[in-house]
Amino acid sequence: MKRILTFLGCVLIFLLGACANMKDRFHVDKATAKSSREILFNEAKELVEKMATLSDQRAWFDLEQVFATHTVYNYGTPEILTPTQIVDRWKPVLSYFTRTNQDISNFQFSETQGRILGSANFTQYHERKSDVTLRGQYSFEFTRNKENQLRILRITMIPGSAIGDEALLRQARKVSPPEKYSYTTETVNFMSKENKLSGWLLKPLNPKSRDVIVIGGPLMTVKEQVAYPYAKKFVEKGFPVFVFDSTGFGESEGAVRNQETPISKIKDLLASVDYLTARTEYEHSKINLIGIDASAGYTAHEAAADPRISRLVLVAPTFIGEDKVDILLTDYYVNSDRGDMPQAHTQLTAATLKSWTGFDATPAAAQIRVPTLLIDSADGLDSVGVKRFISQLRIKPELKTVKAEHEDFYDRSAQMTVVVNSATDFFNKDIILEPLRQAQEE
Known about the structure:
Elements lengths: L1 H56 L2 H5 L2 E8 L3 E4 L1 H14 L2 E14 L2 E14 L1 E15 L5 E15 L1 H10 L7 E10 L2 E10 L7 E5 L10 H9 L5 E4 L17 H17 L8 E6 L1 H12 L3 E7 L15 H4 L15 H8 L14 E5 L6 H10 L5 E4 L6 H4 L1 H16 L8 H5 L1
Parallel strand pairs: 1-6, 9-10, 9-11, 11-12, 12-13, 13-14
Antiparallel strand pairs: 1-2, 3-4, 4-5, 5-6, 7-8, 8-10
């Protein structure tokens, strides 16, 4: 009995010691996390303050270094600019004044689902004979470059008040007038299940159609890469156009980040149509879908299931995911002059491989009852899937063959022009649906 009590005593002492060690380790881990967060907070705050100081000092080259290689720059209209382009916007305006001073205050910081976000108030003092003071707010997203240096990934300026000689400010703006566009861009948020998604709605100043185009981009892309450049071309044709980041991508919420999940992306498309048709100006509009590469399969599913879809355009479609992930190693994805931008993360995960390579959109073809245009090269990446998809369609599609490599459709001017012109003609003309012979025989 004495031995048993001694043994139990030893066990109790061991457990109490283990619990104490776990408690100490918990406090150490918690303190380490807090310390890391404070370091990141200070790093982001110092970067924003450095941006303000360098602009006051007219240190243009050094100022470029605070921005990511592709920065979403929103001073009224979202644009994707290089650091040099941003500085070229600021240089003539700031140089117009004999002295400027920008004060950054009330810096706020958060880490949300892998994203580093911040905001700050600004007070800008500008002097040239007379003076003017501007107040407003910045919002930021930060990223790390390949050298692990923090950089500004997104910057939005929200103007506030102006005090002093506003005529001086107007004169300065004439030195470098803002870019003029034939459209406006509205940043919008909408819900897809429990996640808030972020998108851009491009609206033409002189609309030629009330039909809204929703564009989905290739495998593992964010809205800035392929969908947005196409959106700008279609809005110039007079169409309202909507592009957005899917769940877990870009600016949209999602606990699991940068994972290609076809079912999730199809649900997001449905949510985008719900959002658009709930807006007063589009409640009676037709919704046209454009799916590029992987999104061809997603838009095909949405068109098959949703009677609100009017027309469907499939560009360089990839309907069957099996053995198609090598596309992520091609020039578009690794070339910073093309699609390699810091807003995107194209690293393959085991979950992406499993969900994408097991995807097959061809069965959706049998349920599609809307006019369909399919644009591809003669020997497209997924020629087997395209043939199978067409064979299962019950409505005769329009087919357009273009001389191109698969990824040329992503960003090459010649191929984009063919796609935009062909789709515009397709959307604008009257179409009488023609059942395929096999459907008639059935």
